[in-house]
Amino acid sequence: MKDLEFTVETEMSGLKIRDYLKHHKGLSTRLLRGAALDGRIKVNGTKVKLNHVIKQGEIIKVDVFKEESQNIEAQDIPLSIVYEDDDILVVNKPPFMVVHPTKSHRENTLSNGILYHFKENQSASVVRLVSRLDMNTSGLIIVAKNQYAHSKLSQDMQKPEFKKYYRALVHGTVKEDKCTIDLPIYRQGEDTIKRIIDERGQRSITHYKVIERYNEATLLELLLETGRTHQIRVHLEYIGHPIYGDELYSKHDDSHIIKRQALHAYGLEFPHPRTGDIIKLTSEMPKDMINLIDNIR
């Protein structure tokens, strides 16, 4: 795994290396402390402490690799890998798969398969999820392969250049070709997972456009500006177009044509944590959604 490498710019000369790496290069305080203690921060090949004062032209290298373990069983589970490099892994999660082990789902999760993939490829990375999906939602998930990538991507998720696109098949004919739903989402109580539209909730923004209209159904592309739990499902139900197969937010019984909500996280755009280059990725819709569309047509 390659070290992070920076050459000190003229205007940065005189700063402490801690401030330079944290405020100008985006490294977290936790990462810096750990790297300094382990001797993983070097200037011109020599290990330095965080109070080192940097000078123009000095070459700073930070080893972002740290030996770690994780209480997850590695399992040989087939993965649909869309993108991978030293810092990130992007996989296309199938429907009906839990992302991370829980008390009720300790095995056969996406994380079990990812950890096996890392070990098979002689990588000591642990599973650092940058994004998550509901068990019954399919699509792209980002996994960071080191602490730096996870911290940087988590910060970048709040920026407009980090985009998450979804496809959903909804009941009814959506009239507007494009629209923005800006409605607050609220959880009524700790004993329920269901969310509602309520002024007490958090501001939630979903942009959508029509991809194709069918007989009493519409295929939508959705772009999330915020990332609330069940955001797309709650917003679409509220405007009168619940997602096919959504047993929690729809009154329709679609179990004869699809066994889960017809929602797929199909696209991602985000800056690479190391280079800043924009990564653009897409994935095919799963077979159950394709079959559903064929049936509706």
CATH homologous superfamily (4th level) name of the largest domain: Pseudouridine synthase
Order of helices and strands: EHHEEEEEHEEHEEEEEEHEEH
Overall geometric form? elongated
Report the β-strand fraction as a percent range: 25-35%
Keywords: Isomerase, RNA-binding
Pfam families: PseudoU_synth_2 (PF00849)
Catalytic activity: a uridine in RNA = a pseudouridine in RNA
EC number: 5.4.99.-
Write structural notes for this entry:
A hairpin with a 7-residue loop joins β11 and β12. The relative contact order is 0.13. The chain is built from six helices and 16 strands. It has three domains: 4-62, Structural Genomics Hypothetical 15.5 Kd Protein In mrcA-pckA Intergenic Region, Chain A (Roll); 81-155, Pseudouridine synthase, CATH 3.30.2350; 163-267 and 277-296, 2-Layer Sandwich (Pseudouridine synthase). The chain is elongated, with a radius of gyration of 22 Å. The chain has helices spanning 17-24, 29-37, 110-120, 147-156, 231-238, 287-296, and strands at residues 4-7, 41-43, 46-47, 59-62, 81-84, 88-93, 128-129, 138-144, 163-171, 178-182, 185-187, 195-197, 205-214, 217-224, 263-271, 278-282. It is 19% helix and 28% strand. The protein is α+β, with helices and mostly antiparallel strands and 297 residues long. The strands form three sheets. Strands 5, 6, 7, 8, 9, 10, 13, 14, 15 and 16 form a ten-stranded mixed β-sheet that branches. Strands 1-4-2-3 form a four-stranded antiparallel β-sheet. Strands 11-12 form a two-stranded antiparallel ribbon. The model has no long low-confidence stretch (mean pLDDT 94). It holds the Pfam family PseudoU_synth_2. Keywords: Isomerase, RNA-binding. It comes from Clostridium simiarum.
